[in-house]
Amino acid sequence: MLSDRLHAWVVNLSTWLAFGLLLMLFALTVTAVVLWIQDRYLQKSHAIRRNYPLIGRFRYFFEHLGEFFRQYFFAMDREELPFNRAQRSWVYRAAKDLSNTVAFGTTKQNAPGRVIFLNTPYPTLEKDAAQTLPLMIGPHARQPYVARSFHNISGMSFGALSRPAVRALSRGAGHAGCWLNTGEGGLTEMHLEGGGDVVFQIGTAYYGVRDADGNLSDDRLAELAALPQVKMFEIKLSQGAKPGKGGILPAEKVTPEIARIRGIPVGQPSVSPNGQPGVRGADDLLDLIARVREVTGKPTGIKTVIGSWQWLEDLFVAIHERGLDSAPDFITVDSGEGGTGAAPMSLMDDVGLNLAESLPLVVDLRDGFGLQERIRVIASGKLITPSMVAWAIAMGADFCVSARGYMFALGCIQAMQCNRNTCPTGVTTHNPRLQRGLVPAEKGRRVAHFHANLVKEVETIAHACGVGEPRQLRRHHARMVNANGDSLPLEELWPPIEPGLYLRQGRPSLHAPLARFRVGA
């Protein structure tokens, strides 16, 4: 009798368990479908979830667990390259306008290259803080540019970036009050739709400003210069990703839209020369600068990675021979440690000086030749955190620009897929399925938040050092850690040059410093 009852109870329990399991599976299925629909169609904040509905949620779960298991299974916060987790996390939180405070002490090691700012016991009080004023570029141009922000968006071409990424950057620049550099891929309606200032970059293939034969077109230059949003023109000599190398745009990537924007035939490969055609010396370069500035009426400068610097001495001497109005209105100094573009490892790893050396070198040459009021220096190269931006300004940069920092603000997760058309966040892909994960309105706000929070924290560093605003920072406000673990003043590593010294005493005898260290972010 008992066995019959036990058997009936077991059968009944099994039935209920089976029913419960089916009910649970049904509930899980319904929940999964609802979450899939929400991720795919309703939410607009997370590109990963829009492109990989439901599955993408596991990224945040594992990211959360990583905080606890990282010390056993994953790299430490400061170990990854080219940007470590601490740097990326700072940008992500700044872009989301979340608190960036930390607890229990710094994780930054006292390694060679670390920059330490020297606080004062009498910091600048908030009520005494000065507003960072706009700065004029190109006083000799017919339409000088008064730039509002000291941190701006560096050159990234449409084609390298997706359509929604460019739209988001444009909107963010408009809200932030900074400029957006087009990169060498030409100007699109997407660059203009956000209403922000635009810097047009003239690459070696003259994309967007070329005639039918591939030569620089004065008519196209004038046409672009007539747009009020286009504030400056930047002639690119080289870039950090591939100094000394041009690019090849494969035929399959030359869509009708790309062809229209760049001014090249549809469906045919396009090759960018590895240098500016016809520019073989200082006089040629100054002639090109004068031509572009005369046709456009707007400030014109150059972008370059510094390797040898004899050509800069020749350039500055030629400027004084011709007159100060012949000078480039700005020089963008790019670091030789890579960038957003895909390039051979040999160039990205081993060609061109790091910004830690090239920036002070250019600033000192400019000042030594008495051109500090004529030529603005723009620093470019991994300047995505407040300390790095403050360092660049203290070394003498008038402005800083960043590309990858704003890519992180768009949602980039450093998946290293930029050259494969498989970017999971939609930033550097032309796959429509992946692009839809990046919502321009949402990411545009994040770009603006990143800019605002970065500027705010650079100002905080400046106030801690006792000055009213960032452009008052000087080399004596910071020190750099050397190989022994000690720190040396930046003004000792790079003694400031008396303005006009080289004009009075002849050309400098500069040698690559042996005791310089890579600047740590």
From TrEMBL:
Residues 145-467 form the Glutamate synthase domain. GO terms for molecular function: glutamate synthase activity. Keywords: Membrane, Transmembrane, Transmembrane helix. It comes from the Bacteria. InterPro entries: Aldolase_TIM, GltB, Glu_synthdom. This is FMN-binding glutamate synthase family protein. It comes from Alloalcanivorax marinus. Coiled coil: none annotated. One of its GO terms (biological process) is glutamate biosynthetic process. The chain crosses the membrane at residues 16-37. Belongs to the glutamate synthase family.
